[in-house]
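Help wanted!
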Amino acid sequence: MMKKILTSIFIAFHGLVLIAQSDDDALFIKQLHSYALKEGKAYQWLDTLCLKAPGRIAGSKSSSIAEQYMLEVLQSLKPDTVFLEPCETKSWMRGSIEIVETIDQHGNRHELHTCALGNSIGTEGEMISGECVEVLSLDQVDSLGNSLKDKIVFFNRPMDPSLVNTFHAYGSAVDQRVWGASRAAKYGAKAVIVRSMTNKIDTVPHTGTLVYIDSLPKIPAMAISTLDAEKLSEKLKNENITINLASSAQPGAASVNYNVIAEWRGKQFPEEIILFGGHIDAWDMGAGAHDDGAGCIHAVDAINILLAQNYLPKRTLRVVLFANEENGLAGGKTYAENSNKRNEKHLAAIESDTGGFVPRELSFDSETSLLIDYMRYVNQWLPLFETYDLNFKQAGSGADINPLKSQGSLLIGLRVDPQKYFDFHHTKNDQIYNVNQRELELGAATMASIIYLLDKYGLETKN
Amino acid sequence: MMKKILTSIFIAFHGLVLIAQSDDDALFIKQLHSYALKEGKAYQWLDTLCLKAPGRIAGSKSSSIAEQYMLEVLQSLKPDTVFLEPCETKSWMRGSIEIVETIDQHGNRHELHTCALGNSIGTEGEMISGECVEVLSLDQVDSLGNSLKDKIVFFNRPMDPSLVNTFHAYGSAVDQRVWGASRAAKYGAKAVIVRSMTNKIDTVPHTGTLVYIDSLPKIPAMAISTLDAEKLSEKLKNENITINLASSAQPGAASVNYNVIAEWRGKQFPEEIILFGGHIDAWDMGAGAHDDGAGCIHAVDAINILLAQNYLPKRTLRVVLFANEENGLAGGKTYAENSNKRNEKHLAAIESDTGGFVPRELSFDSETSLLIDYMRYVNQWLPLFETYDLNFKQAGSGADINPLKSQGSLLIGLRVDPQKYFDFHHTKNDQIYNVNQRELELGAATMASIIYLLDKYGLETKN
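Answered by r_m:
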């Protein structure tokens, strides 16, 4: 009710010609939600994807199985076009050896819960040994400088639990994982260990990508669980600790993966593309149920739900399941490059990559010059989402669709409740049994609803 | 941002003198959230409550342990007053025998997952046997009338999965559980079995209260799991099925339970009481983690969080943990009666009884003549909750505080995300490991925030 008043006010104040949403729209969106909750296939598809192709990191056998499976699922929905778009990726393998152990001054050894960070080099059959130095930031590494020579640097700044949005907490801590190895290598450190990226205090290590700076030596990097990080930090207050570290991780060969793409051509404005998707790859340790099987399935079930209502798209609806988000973004980059070569115009692109939890908001992003008008325009639709307690926000969208910003597209992120995401993110526990069926289905319904509005009304903010 | 504009509009339109929320308020509410997430004790208290006093249904030994434990917790927070308020309850025990089995026309027997409904009588050592008749509503029982004599009536109308708010789906199906036995008894049925109240299709039976109408014979009533209900319904399409049913359930003796009450006297307006709480009892099969340990702990941690900021209440803050909500509402009724006798005035009462999931909204209720003004008044606070994605809604509050409506109090429900509640509600699976720590803590922070605003500004809507 309040939001409806507000919409009228925006219309009145800004003199835009807006198409007010009708009762028909409310009814249709309700129908999409009902269908998703009663007859949607999201959970079943996600279950099969996780079963057939867990740990589908770029270059792995599992990544090919995932591409084939999702291709079959999309084909079953009878698109006008369906194809695989190749992109060059690099494989990476952790192998079977992952050891981090502490040795105190009495020679007591204690093994920590650990895993290699994605892209890390290993120790080539050796055990690396060095004195542990705890730091809380990249800057602190710079302050310590050459005193870090031959040391093993322990990055231990926690995600800030007081931040309600856990993605903000992640964003403010993850620089240690991404850049820690090269920063420490700059001063001659032998290796780094990094506190896992989660608010939970437990024994589960979290992997995730690291980036080596080309001009610096590559050193091994491993995550340790938050509980181990807390205990190690305690020990370091009283004594020197030596770290032994071994890892069989190694970069693999160059590889080819595929963006999986299916398209339903628009009857009225076929040249206006509405893209929606997630990324098909997932870290090797879990099944990629939340990250980002859920996002892929949101998109696939969204089109399924729409088609099941005999909906005839005016514009071109295109599902894109991006390759290699976790480990290089080759899928998103390649897709945008090829799209630009084809002189395509994406009206809008929607990505779901925050898990399969209950949907909370749609985030909107675009080129700065366009965004205000876009926000004014889409805000007229907000009352339609009130029943579903969904908010609209001006914020980033998704890593894979971000390169489309240069087309002037409206970029949209489907954001789900963030409280539990980092309990599972990049761990062995990212499994289907940690996804709730109704929550997943509601995400698909949300995506279907915004696709429907974009397709029906377009984005003619300048009329 | 939008909500802020809206607030100004309400102020302008309605000419009310409203106290606009200040940046100080935003800061203090942020502080409450930070503290809850970093140092709150909610999870630890709930864990201990569930461990010490699972299945704390009225009249049970566990219910007394729960009262004592929560009393100690409240005492540790140094209230000005803390006491136990007696109320007359009735105990009920399911005992060890719970059998529902189907027998098909070939004599094949199949045992279903079952539990007695709360308050149901048992079969006194006998096995009851009768032909199964499936119905979808109480009305259908009336249509079938005397043909139900000696039958076992099977209520099988599912909760509607297409309703986004699962509480609405529960509300539209639970009449079968509450009134089914007496309705069927009216026409001579021997017993009833009722499809469990959940959207999940699984093998977990859900208990919950039934009410016998005094003028009708009492017959046994048992819940069966949704999966069993689906399968039984399939069988009944093709053949007659006999049900065998046995239960050792029996009403126990009259008993005494206690509302657990602690109070921090207001320095400025001690006669204006702000109550907040949940219900301390829980069905016997689980640990009552979500229902309603979470609600009790929300209230206790809310006062803890406030006190930890050295907050000095202007008004009287009173935690009330109500006895016997599940099985007769004696706690809520007794509390309101005694409060009325003492000529107390509750400015507001807040109840949390929808679980320990992530907070989504505050619902507001009061006497019809007062509610519009109350809503206008509290809506000025809505912008303060925008960061936390919390909505305000005009809707019912909670069963225990509802009797305070006659005092003209503002009644408030803390409503959390409803998607998973009925996965656990009234089952053996209502356990601490199904509660997420951060989600629980956010609920406590939400409650603390609204208490703070009510305490600081009061509710002088008529100024």
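OP: Thanks! One thing I noticed: The longest strand of chain A covers residues 250-264.
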